DNA sequence: CCCAGGAGCAACCTGGGAGTTGCACTCCGG
DNA sequence: CCGGAGTGCAACTCCCAGGTTGCTCCTGGG
């Protein structure tokens, strides 16, 4: 199931897409700093409308980065570290993989080079 | 030089923006798999034009994720793990920070709740 | 010296995301 | 029961990133 060779995580792309927008990152920052806040409150700290904030929160929620809880007539949003952590791990794995491949390619290249220059006598 | 303490990385946003596009991720995948390839070759493995590939490679290069080397009349591109690793670490740190804040908020909330219900006698 | 395959440039088109406005609905307090 | 605060939904505008086409400019090989 979780053994997709390359490009595992399903949610990774939504997380990346969500994180790509600066406003959404600001939003996450505020959310992380203030704990549980309503969209209206957040809009007060940003140069955008409440509606825009709501939309962004929707995207972030779809990516699993935040979650909202209804309290009376308001909705308190809070940050959700799990999704971010998963993406971070995915990324780290990818980086390590690249490193591995690069090392391999480099070794092969060196070997090939050594192989292809018998006539040359560097000292 | 590249040592901003926390919240740091200037390049993080460009990396995230670069990674947000699926085509660019495919591109990185191919690049990681094949080592050193030209834009034209890459375009052959993708449903887009060579020009589109070139543009994407430009973005990826600006984000420090790839680098191109001129060899004769062609340009070989290769993947650059450093930037990705840095972003991965930044992300992991951020996730940990959120976790910390959440734990704190939770503790405070619990304390406050305990504080606010002296009249109730759950016996 | 010529030509062919590859890279670079510039103008152009287009879909979707970010943002706004306007209104209907819901919930709490007096 | 009524009014106001707060949220939810929908239509609309604007802008830009992704993609294309059509060239020109190198460069290397015969």
TrEMBL record, chains A, B:
InterPro entries: ArsR-like_HTH, HTH_ArsR_DNA-bd_dom, HTH_MetalResp_TranReg, WH-like_DNA-bd_sf, WH_DNA-bd_sf. Keywords: DNA-binding, Transcription, Transcription regulation. The keyword Cell inner membrane does not apply. CDD domains: HTH_ARSR (cd00090). The keyword Ribosomal protein does not apply. This is Transcriptional regulator, ArsR. One of its GO terms (molecular function) is DNA binding.
């Amino acid at each position: 199931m979780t053994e997709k060779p390359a490009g595992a995580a399903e949610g990774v792309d939504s997380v990346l897409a969500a994180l790509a927008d600066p406003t959404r990152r600001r939003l996450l920052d505020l959310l992380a700093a203030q704990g549980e806040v309503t969209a209206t409150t957040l809009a007060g700290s940003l140069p955008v409308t409440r509606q825009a904030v709501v939309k962004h929160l929707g995207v972030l929620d779809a990516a699993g980065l935040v979650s909202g809880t209804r309290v009376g007539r308001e909705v308190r949003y809070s940050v959700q570290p799990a999704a971010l952590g998963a993406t971070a791990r995915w990324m780290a794995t990818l980086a390590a993989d690249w490193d591995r491949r690069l090392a391999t390619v480099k070794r092969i290249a060196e070997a090939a080079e050594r192989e292809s220059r018998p006539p040359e006598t560097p000292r």
